[in-house]
Fold:
Amino acid sequence: MQVLKGPGEYDYEVENPAQALAHAWFTDQEAKKQVSETLSRFDLDESAIEGEAIRRSSADLELLDRMLTSLESRRNKALGWVAEYRASLAHQLRESADRITDGKGVLRLEHPSSKGPTAA
Structure:
């Protein structure tokens, strides 16, 4: 039995009718209705499908969550270092500007005309 045989879609070999119905659930409203009826016989709804999908994927989801947490931590540390560098640079620039405007620590160049006559 094959499912999803439309143009541009892949053909899947399906081993049993349950798998065929599961694949058709995504594209066929009649299949979706049949799945809903089957679930309702067991007092379940479509959220049971989502729950099972999450349960089966929980190990992968946990790994992704840990990876995201690690990446967020690295990003936050990098942003902290950038903020610290900016604050340090601003402080250094402020100090340099203050020294220049106060005239402290700045070498003064004498104008050549202010020197006395030179012997030739």
